[in-house]
């Protein structure tokens, strides 16, 4: 069973920085895509940033220039460096992974896997 475990959330003042980490565990040969989504109270979950195994990144317009996604394929880990945080960044941040293969010879799992979420609160 694939598990995603996030860490690094917390309380930070406006203008501050946080770094989130997400590690995937289980029987995993490769992961096509990993990324971060967030959900604020009363709002739908929305994309923050994603990264392909080849290193192609995609960002929501609201975080471009402030957030950076990076990853370590060998460690099956993805990171989100968040700078210049603002109150509107307050949300539960969820790690996502899809396109997982258990071995080099098995087909890709088409399901989305999610972490348990980590709270990020930006407030003075």
Question: Could you walk me through the main structural features you see in this protein, from its secondary elements to its overall organization?
Answer:
- With 124 residues, the protein is an all-beta fold.
- It is 0% helix and 53% strand.
- The protein has strands at 3-7, 10-12, 18-25, 30-39, 46-52, 57-59, 67-72, 77-82, 91-101, 113-114, 118-122.
- The strands form two sheets. Strands 2, 4, 5, 6, 9, 10 and 11 form a seven-stranded mixed sheet that branches. The protein has a four-stranded antiparallel sheet with strand order 1-3-8-7, with no helix packed on it.
- The N and C termini lie far apart (40 Å).
- The relative contact order is 0.32.
- The model has no long low-confidence stretch (mean pLDDT 96).
- Rounded to the nearest angstrom, the distance between the terminal CA atoms is 40 Å
Portion of residues in beta strands equals over 45%
Give the uncertain stretches in residue-range form: none
Number of strands: 11
The biggest beta sheet reads: 7 strands, mixed
Shape: elongated
Radius of gyration: 14 Å
What does the average pLDDT come to? Answer: 96
What class do helices, strands and sheet pairing give?
Answer: mainly beta
Order of helices and strands: EEEEEEEEEEE
Counted by DSSP, the helix tally is: 0
In which range does the helix fraction lie?
A: under 10%
Q: Could you give a short description of this structure?
A:
The chain is mainly beta and 124 residues long. It has strands at 3-7, 10-12, 18-25, 30-39, 46-52, 57-59, 67-72, 77-82, 91-101, 113-114, 118-122.
